[in-house]
Structures are given as C-alpha cells and as structure tokens.
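Renewal narrative, Specific Aim 1. Our central claim is that a sequence can be written position by position from structural information alone. The example that follows is taken directly from our test logs and has not been curated for this report. It begins with the structure tokens describing the chain, in the order in which they were read.
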C-alpha cells in the first residue's frame, strides 16, 4: 500500500478556486516518480492538480497514478438550495435505486464570501448556478454515493473526461450529496420520445426496418457510446457496472433551433452517469476492496453471466469489462427498437429468464412488435452480435468494437 502524506490541492468548485482536502499519497517506494510538493499552479483546471506526475504518462499510467494519489473526493463548498416548482414542490431530474436527483441552485458559502471580502461584489446572476444534486434516499446509500464521488473525482483528472462523463463539481457534505452539472435528458427519455414520435406517425414501410431515430442517428449514437466505453475501460481503467439508458445523459450539441434542422447525425453527446456500481480494473491487485461492493442488477441490461444462479449463489457477481460491453449492446438494441424494457409485454419473471439467456437478445427482440427494426444481417445485428456472446471471453473488445462502429 502507498504511504499517506496528506496535502492540500486547490481545485475548482463552482468556478471558484478553493482549497480542497484532497489527500495526496506518495507513490510506493518502487516508483521513481516525484509527487507534487506545491499546490497546483493553474488553479482553475483540476487536471493541473497532478502535473508533475502525469507529464508523459500513457493513459494506463495516468489512471493508475490518479487512483493511487487521489484518495478523497473533491468537496463542493458553496451552499445549495433545492429549486421548487410553483406549488413549492422540489423539482426532481430523476430517481434511481439509491438516490433522488434534484435541480438545485448554489450560493457561495459564508466562508468563501468572507475570503472574497476584498474583491468587489459580483452580480447575483454571476454567482448563482444550476446543478443536479444527487441525494441519498436510503441510509445504506451514503457509502455508495461517497464511493461514487471518489470515482468521479478521479475521472475528473483524466484527459477526455469532458466528452464522456457527466461533469462533477464535488461532494456536498452537509447534504451528503453529489453535485453535478445539470444534464436533464436521459437516453431512456429520448428513446421513449422517439418511439412516441414513430407511433404518432403511424406504420411506414419506408422506415419499419430502421432504428426508431433513423439509421444515421443510431449509428452515430452507437459510435459515440462505444468510444465512451473504450475510454472508460482503457483510459480511465474503470468498469461502469450498470450501463442502461437511464444512466446515460444526453448533452445537446446544438441550440433548439439548430436541432430541428439537423436530421442525419445524433445531435447529442452521450455522457456516462451513475458510477454507483463502478469498479476499478486492477489486473495486478484483483478487486479493489476499498470500493463500495454494491452492484446494481437491471435485467435485461445485465449480462447473463451475472444473473446465473451459480454466480448469484457464489456471490461472484462483480461486473467486468465484458459485462459492460453486453450492457451497452443491450442499451443499443433498446435504442433501435424504442422498447425501453427490451421485451415489452413479458412479466418480470419472464424478462429475468430471457435476460439469463441474453445472448439471444436479438432473437427475442425480433418476436416483439418492433422486431423489424433489427433485421437479420442488418447493420444493427452486425454491431450487436459480437458484443453479446454468451461466453464473456468471446465478446468483442472495445477497441475492435469502436472500429466496427466506425466502419
Ligand atoms: N447530472 C444530472 N442531470 C440531470 N439529471 C440527472 C443527472 N444525474 C442523474 N440524473 C437523473 O436522475 C436519475 C437517477 O440518477 P442516478 O445517478 O442514476 O441515480 P441512482 O444511482 O440512484 O440510480 C437518472 O436516471 C437521471 O434521469
Ligand atoms: Mg441510476
């Protein structure tokens, strides 16, 4: 284990520089890298917090150094206020197994205001920002959210983070909440909206063999998501553990006016969110036991090997890179058909049974009312089939998968 030598780093929260209690650990004695001894220079960019260590490191080294050196989550120190609607009810962006995600507004904390006493007061609009605030709904959610805060803090340090992961602003201790940028459209909502649009248009022989959002939009979504997964596995060294449409957020690439004019590509940047089931990929050490050992199971997006009676009995149910690949493939099938449940009309028990046979997902989907959207030998099948092999060892690797999606 590395020796601990706590020091303070200046990191940005809410576009204001504050000193954060980030614990920096010196690398193990075997390492010839020098830990940073002074607080970061360019204080507004968290990626500058470990400059000496990270210069010249390849992606795998970078993530290992960050994991070893960043041991406590970034803190969010401004005050937060949950936004309410006209009837004084708190506004929610969404809910999940662990949390409610509220729309919240920030105000600089009294301490920060006191530090800034010599600077001229800024206008209220400049200091108030809107955030998504993920608050625990159960007592046992607290350690899970703390582990998620650490995972998101580490991701913050890695090049490419902004393109693939929901922006994280810190852990807000008074409310035990995670503070993120608000990205109010989940892929699940988008899929339902697209399916609704198709239903309203009525059946069309011209489009019935295409994904609900159109061929080019689906292909572009697939490429972006697969590239994001490749980044998570290979650059960040992290397994997401619960990939499904509800845990992916869509950041618009265009304004509303421009959006209606763009028809051929997918006009959003899909961002991975909800790292509550995330695990480090640590080949040398096996499983990282400091992480909250909570995996989420969301059949039919969960890989079949994690749902088998044998693995459930043995407790050997940790997600793997290959199980992430399966979950993303299932997500892309749902996006193509517009059926968020994948197998609509079946009972929960039937769905679980089908999920245990997940390698047959395309076959099952074809029996459903939108089965025509994933035709045999079509491009959806070509991209999905290699990612859903029953044996996880035979599933496509993300690097190859990115090339296939780009072909
Ligand atoms: N940054 C965000 N901005 C807007 N909505 C969000 C954000 N993060 C999560 N949500 C919404 O809240 C829901 C629950 O959040 P999630 O992180 O998945 O929590 P859980 O771990 O409890 O499943 C998501 O499905 C999504 O709809
Ligand atoms: Mg979730």
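The sequence written for that structure reads:
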């Amino acid at each position: 284990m590395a020796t601990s030598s706590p020091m303070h780093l200046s990191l940005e929260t809410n576009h204001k520089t504050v000193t954060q209690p980030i614990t920096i650990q010196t690398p193990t004695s075997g390492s010839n890298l020098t830990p940073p001894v002074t607080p970061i220079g360019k204080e507004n960019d968290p990626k500058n917090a470990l400059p000496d260590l990270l210069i010249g490191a390849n992606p795998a080294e970078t993530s290992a150094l960050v994991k070893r050196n960043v041991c406590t989550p970034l803190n969010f120190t401004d005050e937060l206020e949950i936004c309410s609607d006209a009837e004084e009810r708190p506004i929610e962006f969404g809910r999940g197994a662990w949390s409610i995600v509220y729309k919240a507004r920030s105000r600089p904390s009294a301490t920060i205001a006191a530090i800034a006493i010599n600077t001229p007061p800024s206008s209220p609009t400049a200091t108030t920002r809107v955030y998504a605030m993920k608050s625990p709904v159960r007592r046992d959610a607290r350690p899970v959210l703390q582990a998620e805060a650490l995972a998101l803090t580490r991701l913050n340090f890695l090049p490419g983070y902004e393109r693939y992961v929901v922006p994280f602003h810190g852990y807000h201790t008074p409310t035990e909440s995670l503070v993120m940028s608000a990205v109010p459209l989940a892929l699940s909502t988008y899929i339902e909206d697209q399916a609704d649009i198709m239903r309203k248009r009525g059946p069309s022989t011209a489009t019935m063999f295409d994904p609900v959002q159109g061929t080019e939009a689906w292909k572009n979504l697939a490429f972006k998501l697969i590239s994001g997964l490749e980044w998570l596995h290979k650059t960040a060294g992290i397994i997401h553990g619960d990939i499904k449409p509800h845990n992916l957020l869509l950041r618009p690439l265009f304004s509303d006016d421009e959006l209606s004019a763009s028809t051929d590509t997918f006009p959003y940047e899909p961002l991975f969110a909800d790292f509550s089931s995330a695990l480090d990929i640590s080949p040398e050490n096996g499983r990282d036991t400091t992480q909250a050992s909570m995996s989420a199971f969301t059949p039919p997006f969960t890989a079949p090997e994690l749902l088998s009676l044998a693995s459930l009995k043995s407790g050997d149910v940790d997600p793997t890179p290959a199980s992430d690949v399966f979950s993303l493939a299932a997500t892309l099938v749902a996006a193509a058909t517009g059926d968020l449940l994948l197998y609509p009309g079946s009972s929960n028990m039937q769905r679980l049974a089908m999920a245990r046979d997940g390698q047959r997902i395309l076959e099952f989907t074809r029996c459903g009312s939108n089965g025509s959207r994933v035709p045999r030998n079509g491009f959806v099948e070509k991209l999905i089939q290699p990612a859903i092999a029953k044996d996880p060892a035979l599933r496509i690797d993300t690097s190859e998968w990115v090339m296939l999606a780009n072909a």
